[in-house]
């Protein structure tokens, strides 16, 4: 199972075959990160086809499902790559009103494999859920994803809810997603922004004081 074929399976929306293909690649000794990377490249191409109007919403949904099937196989392996104790706790969520979670899930998988204790709240998450989770877990990092221009303002809502709860100076808030950049992120009350998941992990390590 070569990497090009894995990428093709995402592009061709082979939701029923992807899990076996990922298993096959793992059995052959391929690295879980490299597999994830090929799948992400496939997803990039799906996004391009959607923008070019070669693919429509149905295809997008199927591509999302295909990625999820693959993640289910990869997640425990990525998580097992790390064995350290005393992990930094991080809350991950896609903001309220936004149902895009593929990028968030990639970041989550990488964080799990890099030594964080991850609390993934899913998508369409409101500010109170985030605040409650900070109280419950004592997490020191919050990572929010927003793919829609319409929903980026919700980052500010979370920032303000944390302030109101007296928690804002106890946590670092990092955000990501295509409509964002550093300037907008800071304006919305975040501490940091990163372009992609790999960069995101690097930034998160830094703000967590790990490097
Ligand atoms: C797949 C997809 C969907 C799927 C989502 C499936 C799922 N489970 O996620 C479905 C079909 C559900 C969907 C729905 C919609 N979508 Co859509 N979708 C996409 C698409 C094609 C790809 C997104 C994706 O997964 N990319 C692959 C991942 C890997 O990349 P990513 O998400 O950008 O994440 C990377 C980085 O941004 C970063 N990152 C992401 N989050 C975070 C967080 C942190 C903390 C950090 C550090 C980094 C980080 O790291 C990731 C990996 O490197 C994009 C177009 C595109 N090319 O991006 C449109 C797009 C995002 N969708 C769009 C729209 C408009 C919609 C709909 C409103 C369409 C509609 N008319 O119904 C709905 C909204 C539903 C809702 N309420 O959320 C627009 C948004 C425009 C805008 N700026 O507001 C886009 C840009 C398409 C377009 N050009 O019009 N969509």
List the helices and strands and how they pair.
Blueprint lengths: L2 H9 L6 H10 L4 H20 L5 H24 L7 E7 L7 H12 L2 E5 L6 H11 L3 E5 L7 H12 L7 E5 L5 H6 L4 E2 L3 H11 L4
Parallel strand pairs: 1-2, 1-3, 3-4, 4-5
Helix pairs in contact: 1-2, 1-3, 2-4, 3-4, 4-5, 5-9, 6-7
This protein binds cobalamin (B12).
The site of cobalamin has 37 residues, from α3, α4, α5, β3 and β4.
Can you describe what's shown?
With 211 residues, this protein is an alpha/beta fold. The protein has two domains: 3-80, Methyltransferase, Methionine Synthase (B12-binding Domains), Chain A, domain 1 (Orthogonal Bundle), CATH 1.10.1240; 88-207, Rossmann fold, CATH 3.40.50.280. It has nine helices and five strands; from the N terminus they run ααααβαβαβαβαβα. The protein has helices at 3-11, 18-27, 32-51, 57-80, 102-113, 127-137, 153-164, 182-187, 197-207, and strands spanning 88-94, 116-120, 141-145, 172-176, 192-193. Strands 2-1-3-4-5 form a five-stranded parallel beta sheet, with helices on both faces. β3, α7 and β4 form a beta-alpha-beta unit. α1 runs antiparallel to α2 (18-27) and α4 (57-80) runs parallel beside α5. The longest helix is centred in the N-terminal third of the chain and has 24 residues, at 57-80. The radius of gyration is 17 Å and the shape is globular. The model has no long low-confidence stretch (mean pLDDT 91). The structure holds cobalamin.
Descriptive tags:
single chain, about 210 residues, alpha/beta, Methyltransferase, Methionine Synthase (B12-binding Domains), Chain A, domain 1, Rossmann fold, 2 domains, binds cobalamin
